[in-house]
Automatic annotation (TrEMBL):
It catalyses: N(6)-[(R)-lipoyl]-L-lysyl-[protein] + pyruvate + H(+) = N(6)-[(R)-S(8)-acetyldihydrolipoyl]-L-lysyl-[protein] + CO2. This is Pyruvate dehydrogenase E1 component subunit alpha. The keyword Transmembrane helix does not apply. InterPro entries: Alpha-ketoacid_DH_E1_comp, DH_E1, PdhA/BkdA, THDP-binding. Residues 39-325 form the Dehydrogenase E1 component domain. GO terms for molecular function: pyruvate dehydrogenase (acetyl-transferring) activity. Keywords: Oxidoreductase, Pyruvate, Thiamine pyrophosphate. It is an enzyme of class 1 (oxidoreductase). Residues 258-277 have a biased composition (Basic and acidic residues). It comes from Geobacillus icigianus. The pyruvate dehydrogenase complex catalyzes the overall conversion of pyruvate to acetyl-CoA and CO(2). It contains multiple copies of three enzymatic components: pyruvate dehydrogenase (E1), dihydrolipoamide acetyltransferase (E2) and lipoamide dehydrogenase (E3). Its cofactor is thiamine diphosphate. Its EC number is 1.2.4.1.
Length: 356
């Protein structure tokens, strides 16, 4: 079965282009723009882990190692498209246009971090696994029925494919020919459960067969493969050819969240080895060096700019006025249920008692 879904690569580990068909489109300008996004997302991710360790934000979900998946796919979107992310996809959200300050507010536990940025249809990250897939299929149908050319991308992990919502989302999108790209980041673990214990299939791409839609397996550490294949899938969607399932094979270097200790369930040498061989950023660096596009001064300048952006966003996040505790009751439903109204009343009574 695996042979039916060979892994597509455009840029190999050594930084050489292995699909000449894309050669012309891979300009210096495109490469430098991608590289800037890649290092920005990595620097932000590392900063967030450090902020969490200092107690300045809450639990954090790192994505280091998955930058090519997130940057390549987000850059393939048009401004009018929808993005349905998970808790791990803040790199994709930032690349598509969500500010760094908003990202930090999200991790500070603020409702303001969930508001879609002006003009961009980025819905709040889904923490319940796979619930966003039927939502994405629905949004795609709405765009289709309105007659627009807007498409939808929805992100989810390998573990999410064991959920009913994965199957409901794909089936619905297939039946209604919805313009949606199901973008799977197969980092090969669902917390401590390896893919081999999660499913009997060898690939995730092959699950597309059950819905009679195209399934594609790509190297998720190859930003060009991700960018071009996602662009093609979005084009199909816009042209009324229906959904695509993309499996981007990748690896998270760090912990599942800042509350997790991966040394309890996997050999840490594996991540170390992968950093040296398949790292998505090093691969682009090797390519730029081969092309003679590598410019140390420019890289230092970009890092300096990102550092300044990070420092400014952290300061803004920390200057934010204190959260109103009753937000947690007010923003669940448009009209509160009686249980939530009761809980809010109990909280307010407790608060009055504390103030006395
Ligand atoms: C419906 C639901 N069940 C269980 C959980 C607990 N949980 C949080 S993350 C996770 C693993 C998800 O793995 P995967 O889909 O591979 O995504 P990854 O975290 O690797 O990006 C689980 C089971 C949850 N958030 N939602
Ligand atoms: Mg996973």
């Amino acid at each position: 079965m695996e042979l039916d879904f060979p892994m597509v690569q455009v840029l190999n580990e050594e930084g050489a282009i292995v699909q000449p068909a894309y050669r012309e489109q891979i300009t210096k300008e495109l490469t430098m723009s991608m590289y800037r996004h890649l290092i920005r997302t990595r620097m932000v991710d590392r900063k967030c882990v450090s902020l969490q360790r200092q107690g300045r934000i809450g639990t954090y979900v790192p994505y280091e190692g998955q930058e090519a998946c997130q940057v390549g796919s987000a850059l393939a979107l048009n401004d009018g498209d929808w993005m349905f992310p998970t808790y791990r996809d803040h790199g994709a959200m930032m690349t598509f246009g969500r500010s760094l300050t908003q990202t930090l507010l999200y991790w500070k536990g603020r409702t303001e971090g969930c508001v879609p940025p002006e003009g961009k249809k980025i819905v709040p990250p889904s923490v319940p696994i796979a619930t966003q897939l039927p939502h994405a299929a629905g949004a795609a149908c709405a765009e289709k029925w309105k007659g627009t050319k807007n498409a939808v991308i929805v992100y989810f992990g390998d573990g999410a494919t064991s959920e009913g919502d994965f199957h409901e989302g794909l089936n619905f999108a297939s039946v209604f020919h919805a313009p949606v790209v199901f973008f799977n980041q197969n980092n090969q673990y669902a917390i401590s459960v390896p893919m081999t214990r999660q499913m009997k299939t060898k690939t995730i791409a092959q699950k597309a067969l059950a819905y009679d839609i195209p399934g594609l397996r790509i190297d998720g550490n190859d930003v060009f493969a991700v960018y071009f294949k996602t662009t093609e899938a979005l084009e199909r969607a816009r042209n009324g050819e229906g959904p695509t399932l993309i499996e981007a094979v990748t690896w998270r270097y760090g912990a599942h969240t800042t509350s997790d200790d991966p040394s309890r369930y996997r050999d840490q040498e594996e991540s170390k080895k992968r950093r040296e061989t398949t790292d998505p950023i090093k691969r682009v660096e090797r390519f730029m060096q081969r092309e003679g596009w590598w410019d140390e001064e420019w890289v230092n300048q970009v890092q300096g700019e990102v550092n300044a952006e990070i420092e400014q966003a952290v300061a803004e996040m920390e200057r934010y006025p204190k959260a109103n505790m009753s937000d947690m009751f007010d923003f669940v439903f448009a009209q509160p249920t009686w249980t939530i109204a009761e809980q809010k009343e109990a909280y307010l009574q407790w608060k009055r008692g504390m103030e006395r």
